[in-house]
Fold this protein.
Amino acid sequence: MVKTLVLGPLCANCHIVTDENGVGFIVDPGANAWKIFPELEGLDIKYVIFTHEHYDHIMAAAEVMEKTGAKLVASRFTAENIHNRDKTLLCWFPGVKDNLPDVDIAVSDGDRLEAGSMTLEFIETPGHCPGGICIKCGDMLFTGDTLFYHCIGRTDFAGGDLETLLSSVREKLFTIEGNVTVYPGHDRTTTLSEERENNPFF
Ligand SMILES: [Zn+2]
């Protein structure tokens, strides 16, 4: 089951994903921990996962981890750069403190983790920024700012590259078979087949 909250001034999606026993993980707790907490009642959250290192996807992580005891999962690049304000884009907000926790588990392409009865598979998809990953869990795919409904992520931030992003989506995401629902980092859900057929970037 997926519960999506829209958090912070940039309206980033935070996805709370649980199995039939309420065991699960949280993708991108970007802001407003007080909005996340009421949704965690009775759940056993094993992981907080960052799809990438940008501030609008990560800033409530410390509070959520303290409340749940979850471990923090991100790509190796994100793990190495989590306190680099040029990479998280916190450089835009000199007054905002870096309260970010260190990453506990740095994942690479093809790595897997279990949360309850669910298996999570990590797919490195750089392009929007170097540390971008997508998470596949059954027929769900969490794409962060890599792939949106009829759109893709911006590539004009530090480390972004359009060609890299297009080939990440083409080679790593569009090759996934089956009836896959896409849960992006902003905006509405979609499916891989809808994006393969109707995304104007491809
Ligand atoms: Zn981003």
User: Anything to note?
Assistant: The mean pLDDT is 97. The pocket of zinc ion is lined by residues 52, 54, 128, 145 (CB under 6 Å). The first strand starts at residue 2 and ends at 7.
